[in-house]
Amino acid sequence: MTTTARETVLGRVRDALTLARPAEVTVPRAYRTGRTLPDDERLALFVDRLADYKAQVRTCTTDRAPAVIADALHEHGVRRAGAPADLDAAWLAGYDGEVQWDSPAVPARRLGELDGVVTASAAGCAETGTIFLDGGPGQGRRALSLVPDLHVCVVDLSSVVPGVPEAVARLVPERPTTLISGPSATSDIELERVEGVHGPRTLVVVIRTDS
């Protein structure tokens, strides 16, 4: 019986896959978790890391948050701001511009017409200055926080934890997660920093210290 080249190749591939099938390996998951820091130390470390990433940081109490958010939007000339449909409307009470409440019916390309966006967040990591969004209440879809050029993100100090394992533990695994470490930037081309390539060029973080 004559064997064709095709049969020969497929036979070799089949044999290779059989031989290369790895044995089951148990991966250790004993990550260091449960660390804590006093509020003042967590806040100072988080703010320091955010500043390293060139994010603009503002701290305030909950009752001052609407005024601080409005000041940030006005300072950056935002005339049309986007917001998730379930964002607390009181957060934008001090803003006198147009607010577009987002919905799945709004095409992603239309989000580029917004001057900025305001969202909540799921968690923050003090050691890395990273903010986590997982599509939970007040956070909206991923495109909403990635397309507009300005992102005003409200972070509750109570959601800021020391390290990445503690932050990941606060997330809902089934939700799409966005990690934000400062404004979007890259230095891939001739090591020159270029901002706004993969997301917002400007990130303003409003930290509610009494939450």
Automatic annotation (TrEMBL):
InterPro entries: FTHF_cligase-like_sf, LUD_dom, NagB/RpiA_transferase-like. It comes from the Bacteria. Residues 45-207 form the LUD domain. This is LUD domain-containing protein.
